[in-house]
Amino acid sequence: MMKHAWNNYKRYAWGLNELKPLSKQGHSSSLFGSIKGATIVDALDTLFIMEMKDEFEEAKSWVEENLDFNVNAEVSVFEVNIRFVGGLLSAYYLSGEEIFREKAVELGIKLLPAFLTPSGIPWALLNLKSGIGRNWPWASGGSSILAEFGTLHLEFVHLSHLSGNPIFAEKVMNIRSVLNNLEKPQGLYPNYLNPSSGQWGQYHVSVGGLGDSFYEYLLKSWLMSDKTDQQAKEMYFDAVKAIETHLIRKSSRGLTYIAEWKGGLLEHKMGHLTCFAGGMFALGAEDAPKDRTQHYLKLGAEIARTCHESYNRTFVKLGPEAFRFDGGVEAIATRQNEKYYILRPEVVETYMYMWRLTHDPKYRKWAWEAVEALESHCRVDGGYSGLRDVYHRQNSYDDVQQSFFLAETLKYLYLIFSDDDLLPLKHWIFNTEAHLLPILCSSEKEVEVHE
Ligand code: DMJ
Asked: How far is the CA of 140 from the centre of ligand 1 (A)?
């Protein structure tokens, strides 16, 4: 599958951001401004792990010769960080090739002007040449987005580690303290925060889009610090406690789901994006306070089951963008604009963590169902395409092979069918784009080992 996705990208869209597999041409997304090669950088570590050595070498040569951040264009700070900085750091740690470290640090420096706001909460969008930032025009009251500014921490800590320059870590530690010091409604983190006033915007809370990877990065900051970042651990478990109280519900037929919270009212809808949380709960279970390890493993398993149901209740056996638990339905999309599937990874991501942490064979079975569905419905001559309606018999393609399909979906699937000693969870953290970052050994623990 990786060969098919890669070869077609190479054939029809080489050097551009993504592939349009039906039109057989490049696809450009405004998220990356005029930075090019998103698929190449996103795919580097997957190629390495799958031992596709020739392909890795050609990707590396492209990075050496063509990857250029000197562009006069506005980029999404979050997207560029998770895909480009994350992809380059991961490629560096896996291969040891200096070029990836250099490029990651170069890009990190270019992103720093985004933090020039009164609160230090970064802008969502940044012009890489002028250094002028702004927020998404649609975001409540000029706010920055929790899942965007809350998803820089892992990469920026590594940038400081690799460059010897503390500035990157200082920037994300400041985000952390602003968030920690703010009063939180019912212990929940709203999705919107105004970077000028340093105050919350609208009281909308989500473990899916606009909120998701902020929670993921709290847990992973704790794990990546070799379990020394106590503040991250406390903030994570406090947030999860509030999420359990206010957002997690069980349907009348016993499916556990995570709803969205809008100023105290629940919308009984769960996004495909939210499905990553099953894996997150299970990954954090070991360190849960008050002997709640089994509880969180079970919660992870319940979310995995619900998300599997959202797949199983469609015609193509791949899940919709969002599914509902109201109006007499459970785990089904009811609105036409929520029925699409764009090759997203979150469900197989949760299967990967559940497989690694429980070895229950059902997760391999479910992952294989997803492979078969991808092969039957998304594979086309020119690569893999997303679908417009997962309940429809006739495939209707969106004609985009997203770069995260190579970075995440295929990587997680590969790991589910590999041995656990390939990238053991005790040594590696996956960033939110499935790029690998090693756990940083704390000097205290090193001393303990030597003693
Ligand atoms: C990816 O870019 C990342 O997983 C991000 O956290 C959420 N959206 C896509 C995949 O769905």
From this structure: 22
134: nearest Cα among 117, 112, 156: 117
Tell which one of 404, 405, 409 to mutate to probe ligand 1, the residue whose CB is within 8 A of the most ligand atoms: 404
Question: Is there an atom of ligand 1 within 6 Å of 4 CB?
Answer: no
Q: Which atom of ligand 1 lies at the shortest distance from residue 273's CA? A: 11
Residue nearest to atom 6 of ligand 1 (CA): 432
CA of 434 to the centre of ligand 1 (A): 9
Q: What are phi and psi of 321, to 5 degrees?
A: -65, -35
CA nearest ligand 1 atom 10, residue: 344
How many other C-beta atoms are found inside a 10 Å radius of the C-beta of residue 70? Answer: 9
**Angstrom distance (rounded) from CA 290 to CA 258:** 23
Residue 445 has a pLDDT of: 59
432 lines ligand 1 (CB under 6 A): yes
CA 269 to the chain's CA centroid: 20
pLDDT at 442: 78
Query: By alpha-carbon position, which residue is closest to atom 1 of ligand 1?
Result: 433
pLDDT (0 to 100) of residue 29: 85
> What is the separation of C-alpha 70 from the centre of its chain, rounded to a whole number of angstroms?
26
433 lines ligand 1 (CB under 6 A): yes
What confidence category does residue 444 fall into, taking pLDDT thresholds of 50, 70 and 90? low
Establish whether residue 215 lines the binding site of ligand 1, counting it when its CB lies within 6 angstroms of any ligand atom: no
Is the CB of 404 inside a 6 Å radius of any atom of ligand 1? yes
pLDDT tens digits, 317-349 = 999 999 999 999 999 999 999 999 999 999 999
Picking from 335, 409, 330, 421, the residue whose alpha carbon sits closest to that of residue 374 is 409
**Which value, to the nearest 10 degrees, does the dihedral of the CA atoms of residues 376, 377, 378, 383 take?**
50
Name the 3-class secondary structure at 196. Answer: coil
Contact assessment for residue 222 and residue 436, using Cβ atoms and an 8 Å cutoff:
no
Considering the chain, what is the average pLDDT of its residues?
Answer: 97
Span 394-406, mean pLDDT? 97
pTM: 0.98
Question: Rounded to an integer, what distance in angstroms lies between the CA atom of residue 144 and that of residue 134?
Answer: 9
